[in-house]
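Trying the structure run again after the queue cleared.
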Amino acid sequence: MLRPIRVLMVEDHRDWRKLVRLMLQMRPEWQIICEVSDGLESVQKAEELKPEVVSMGRCNTCSESTGRSFKTKSFSWTLI
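Done. C-alpha cells:
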C-alpha cells in the first residue's frame, strides 16, 4: 500500500472545515496532518510539517500576503 498524501487544511469557517474534513476522511489515500484557521499559522505549519498538499479555503483571516508567502517560498507541495 502506498503512503497517504499528507494534507494541511486551512479554513477559518468551522462548518466548511468540518465538511472538507469529512470529505477527505472518506478517501484513505488522503491524510489530514493538521487543521488551521488563519493565514499566518498556515504558513508556519506548512514550513514545519511539510505537507504534500495544502487545502486552503478562501478564509477571511488569510490575507493576500499569505498567498504570496506560499507562492514565493520554495515549498515542494501543491496548493489547492
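The radius of gyration is 12 Å. Worth checking whether this holds up in the mutant runs.
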